[in-house]
Every structure is written in C-alpha cells, then in structure tokens.
Amino acid sequence: MTKPTNNYFDELRATRVWRSVFRSGTGPSTLHRALAIQQNVFLHLFSTKVRKRMTSFSATWYLGTLTFGTFLILVITGILLMLYYHPSVPQAYADTKDLQFVVSSGLFLRNLHRWSAHAMVFLVFAHMFKVFYRGAYRPPREFNWVVGVILLLVTLLLSYTGYLLPWDQLAFWAITVGSNIASAVPVFGNRVHFLMLGGNQVNANALLRFYVLHCVILPLTAILFIAVHFWRIRKDGGLYAHQSEPKTVAVKAAHVTPEGAQ
Amino acid sequence: MSEEKQNESALPGKEKEFDRRAFFVKLGLGSLSIAATGTVVFAYQFLSPNVLYEPSPIINAGKPESYPLDSVTLDVNSAIYLVHANEGFFALSAICTHLGCMTAWKPELGIIACPCHGSKFTREGQKTDGPAPRPLPWLRTWVSDEGDLMVDRSTSIRPMQFVRI
Question: The domain A60-239: what is its CATH number?
Fold first, then answer.
C-alpha cells in the first residue's frame, strides 16, 4: 500500500481498527472503490458502478432518494414522538397537545413528522409518475414496479393509521368513515371492520391497534420492501437510462411480442 | 432423482405410484397445511376481542315529560334522536347509514343532515337527499317500570311504531 499522505483520514483508514471493520482495503483504484460498496452490508444492495449521467438531477429528479429521505426523517421523529405519546383514550389527545405546547422542540418534531408524511405521499406519487412516463417500469424492471406499488400501499396505510393517533375530532371521524368503507367489502365486510377496530366503534382498541400498526408492523414492512426495491435496481440492470438502454432489452422485447400476440 | 425414477420404472411389476418419499412429501405437506389453517384460525380468534368495553346499547333516556310535544332531541353521547311527535314517542339512530358519521337535527329546516357527505333525512328517518343508502333506523323503545323511556340501540324496528303514553 502507498504511504498515507498527510491527510488525517487516510491515516485513520490505515489503522488496524479501521481495517478490522472495513475489510475491503483502501485506495484510489476502481477495484477498491467497487469493493467498498460491494463488501458493505448496507451498500451492497446498490450497484458498484453507476453511469455518471445517471447521478445528475435530470435523470431521476432524485425522487426515489427524496422519498427514502422523508422516510428516514419520519422514522427518527416518530421514535422521538413515541417517548411522550401514550396510545390510550384519556391520554392520547392531551399528549398531542403537550407535544405542541409543553415539550421542548415538541412542536418542531410533530410538525416535521406531519409535513414529512405529506411530502412522502407526494414524493411517492411523483416518483411513480416519473417512472411511468419514462417507461422505466417495463421489463426487466416489471417486478420492481410491483414492489413499488406495495410500497405505495404501505405508505398510504402508514398515513391512514397515523391520522387517528392525535385522537381529535378530525381523527375520530376520519377513521370512522374510513373503517366503514372497509365494511363495504363483500361477505366479510363486517368482520374486516370488527378486526380492524378491535370492536364495533372507534375506541380504545382501535387506537391501540392503529398505534401498533403505525409504529411497528407497517414500518417494518416498509423497510423490508424498501430493501428489496433498492436491491432490485441493481439486479434489473441499474437505474433506467432513458437514451442508451442496452440493446438486449430491445431485442428481448422484439422477440417476445410476436409470440405473445398469437 | 430422475435416475432413480427411471431405474424403478424399468423394473417389471413396479409401477411406482406411491413410494416412501412421495408418502413423506404428502405427509409433510399435509401436516403443514393443517398447521397453516390452524394458524389462520388462531390469528382470527386472537384478533377478535371476546369482551368489549363499549357502552351498553340500552339507553335510559329519562322521563317522557322532559321531551316537549313536537320536539327532536339529539343525545350526542348515545347518538340517538328522541322524537316526541303527535302520534307518540320514537327513537331514531343518529348514525348516518352512509359511512357512520353522526347526523344533526336542523330545527330551522326541519330536517336531519349529515355533515360528512351531505345526506338529508326527514324527522322520520326517510332519506331525501345525498349518498345514504338506507333510511335512519328506528330503534326499539319502551317505558321502563320506573316510567323512564328506554332505547335499545342494537335493535331496529319497522318505522312508524310509536310509543304512546
């Protein structure tokens, strides 16, 4: 290995402790830089190489990354809000008000959570429109589009379950209306409604169920599918390049169409 | 495995339809599906509460004299209207049959209106406007031994059955 320069970071990366954590070694070579991505448990989901053009704003408008950014903000602010919020009928509304008027920075965190939630729903739709109109959903990326639709549903469910938690009039009647829509399901409608609310009306059980869904089940589901979503970008040939898509795709499509048409 | 199959089928008088491996595969899949069904039933039962801490459906609406003639009174806690009409008393559910919002009595218009999606009902619960699919149900009403008006919110009756006192 070349002698470290007087750059402190290079010296740090040459230490035994650093090398015990990051096995790939350091260096400016393409191999080292590729290994740094490929040998990292989180980064190995992504491609080791990306076309430089694809990192520009115009290629994707960064909509997927921004969506993930709002998700991270929501997880962090959400965990902090959980420290002051009790999902019980006598306390939920009072805790929400306390977060706004009593807890230091509570108003900031609650508003950040709320606005990020709105932004995430907007960005998910914007991301899907961009992917749709660019045609990036087409084979070989069709399964990743399906994963994206699942993530859209999870996002909407997160929005819906979070709406009840302030336990104010808006929340109560919105969930009353929303859960009654669920009872329009044929045959099982009333059972779905009963399981969803844990009773016949929006009450303590419904608040607790929505809290568990909002804080545990749905975020874990989202994280699981986000991981698959990112990993499939690499597996499906990297970010969709509008102009210079590999010719193999076009050939495959031309090969498939006549057979499918018959 | 395919070699095995070929060998066995080559042997005379051994049309293998059910060897030991197939038996255990069937046994395994069978027990797994029984376990999966059990899990679904278990999950459904677990998620359905057996005891609910919800208010009783039977409401004591108080003395009939407290409702003046030709009046409509909404009790927001129990979500029922108590109507004292010329023909007698009756109770009407205040829960909109569309999506479950609580309706309100508009005395100046003489109608019941839902704030959520604009359904309108007459004092007898008949829908006159909006998306509600059914009229507001009449609820079973009777006079208790103590002379109080009682309403059972869980039991609807045919309309125009007045309680006369």
Answer: 1.20.810.10
Measured at the alpha carbon of residue A139, what is the angle toward residues A137 and A143, in degrees to the nearest 5? Answer: 65
**By three-state DSSP, how is residue B119 classified?**
coil
- Contact call for B52 and A200, based on CB within 8 A: yes
- Report whether B165 contacts B88 (CB < 8 A): yes
Per-domain boundaries in chain A: 60-239
Chain B residue numbers with beta carbons less than 8 Å from the beta carbon of A199 are 49, 52, 54
CATH topology of domain B58-157: Rieske Iron-sulfur Protein (2.102.10)
Q: Do A200 and B49 touch (CB under 8 A)?
A: no
pLDDT in tens, A101-158: 999 999 999 999 999 999 999 999 999 999 999 999 998 999 999 999 999 999 999 9
Q: Answer whether A203 touches B (CB < 8 Å).
A: yes
Strand partners, B106: B111
Map out the domains of chain B as residue ranges. 2-47, 58-157
User: 3-state DSSP call for residue A222?
Assistant: helix
- Residue A204 touches chain B, beta carbons under 8 Å: yes
Chain A interface test: which of B50, B95, B99 (most A C-beta within 10 Å): B99
Instruction: Tell me which residue in A173, A181, A204 faces B53 most closely, judged by beta carbons.
Output: A204
